[in-house]
Amino acid sequence: MNQLSTAPYDLLGVGIGPFNLSLAALCDQMPDLNALFCEARTEFRWHPGLLVDGARMQVPFLADLVSLVDPTNPWSFLNYLRHQQRLFPFYFSERFHLPRREYEHYCRWTAERLPNCRFGVQVSSVHWDTAEQLFRVTAGDREVAAHNVVLGVGTEPYRPTAFAALADHPRVWHCARYLDHRSTLDGARDITVLGSGQSGAEIFLDLLRTRVGDGTRLRWLTRTRAFAPMEYSKLGLEHFTPDYTRYFHGLPAPVRDRLVGEQWQLYKAASAETLAEIHDHLYQTTVGRPIDADPVEIVPGTAVTTATANPAGTIELRCRHTDSGTETVIRTDAVVIATGYRAIRPSALDPIAHLIDWDEQGRYQVDLHHRVATLPALTGGLYVQNAELHTHGVGTPDLGLGAHRAAVILNAIAGRTVHPLPARTAWTSFTAPTPADSRPQQIDGAPARTR
Question: What strands, in cross-sheet order, belong to the sheet with 11-14?
Fold first, then answer.
């Protein structure tokens, strides 16, 4: 590593995914702020195993790294298009939602040009220097100091415990590796996709397009009671505003935990467009024959309780149907697990774990500025991005709130309003209705005076 500052950084970012990249892009326009972002990988990658042909983002293009906070920022998606000489093609495409490949390329374009981003540099430990009142961070083969640390290490693929015995099975893997491992499905005559979110839907559609017709049986299972579409009404989307984040943060922890589970259709479901494509494909490919002749099975409300490999080489899935309680055994050749991702606690935090004020479930306690609660001995700022679903709600993993969260963190670290943020962003009022006796009364059609 060369040209690193010997003076303490104002901000050190750990991990460079879209959220810390957003923060890096905003920091780039602040010459008085000394910031460094480190990523262990040698280049920017965003879910490379899921860049399936035809897959599109679930948020509009304005949910880029900076535009919803600073549309004049040079790292906006529109400026990227200008540099790529693609403004007119984008204009004529009339598509508000980008192909995933293009979003990933835009982020990579930004990351490769930002001077405050370093790749191939792993942060292996974070210590707190009580005497100097700053963080000592081992980054690659160097130690750097920082007054504030922002964790943007992302999430990791989640595998249900039912698949613990098949951790090394060559035909049982998480969808995050889909494109890299799709060839292992060659020769499989029975394939099961588990999980009804967007990734599961896109993979099932890809398999329908490439495998149905060759005799392969395709099966799509999910624990949820329906293959329901993502909530995408305009008022429903107001759950992904700073207004709802503030409301959610103010609720008691048990209420927040209950709501996250109940609101799965806001952030875990598949898009209505993808579900429609699946139905259209099935309809078109079954012309001239009955539905039950098609080797496709789509079953909601079904949980896999255990998964084992049998001597014959197939995989046995013991399933429980939620409504009836019926238990069945399915034999399949391969399983693609599309059960989402979970926030991770990086081992680099181990040296300061005793200084973090964890909640009763061992999770970060995070304030509205996304700062982690710590014991009094640790006075530096420790911030998290996309690890606060339990405190900030369904908008936590949403790219549409990424620039806003980065601006909130930046304002807090700078101690001033670097980016003015709107006081209200939703028509919906999520709190209880205003009592009638507290509203101005009208007399003869005109509002009465209030004192």
Answer: 117-119, 35-39, 11-14, 148-151, 381-384
Q: Specify the DSSP class assigned to residue 12.
A: E
Average pLDDT over residues 36-42: 98
Q: How many helices (H) and strands (E) does the chain have?
A: 12, 22
Helix (H, G, I), strand (E, B) or coil at 309: strand
Distance, in Å, from the CA atom of 33 to the CA atom of 14, rounded to the nearest integer, reads: 17
Tokens describing residue 240: 């992904």
* Cβ–Cβ < 8 Å for 205, 281: yes
Tell me the C-alpha to C-alpha distance, in Å, between residue 44 and each of 284, 399, 428: 39, 16, 37
Give the chain's mean pLDDT.
94
Identify the residue whose tokens are 């936590």.
396
How many other CB atoms are found less than 10 A from the CB of residue 310?
10
* Residue type (1 letter), 33: L
The DSSP call for residue 9 is: B
Write down the H helix ranges in 132-262: 178-181, 198-211, 242-249, 253-262
Three-state DSSP state, 340: coil
The helix (H) or strand (E) run that includes residue 89 is: helix 87-93
Helix 272-285 × helix 198-211 angle, to 10°: 20
Half-sphere exposure of 181 (CA within 13 A, CB side): 17
Whether pLDDT at 3 is above 80: no
Residue 197's identity, in one-letter code, is: G
DSSP 432: P
Cα 377 to chain centroid, rounded: 32
- The alpha-carbon radius of gyration of the chain (Å, integer) is 24
**Residue 117 has which token pair?**
């981003």
| Digit-coded pLDDT (tens) for 259-318 | 999 999 999 999 999 999 999 999 998 888 887 777 899 999 999 999 999 988 899 999
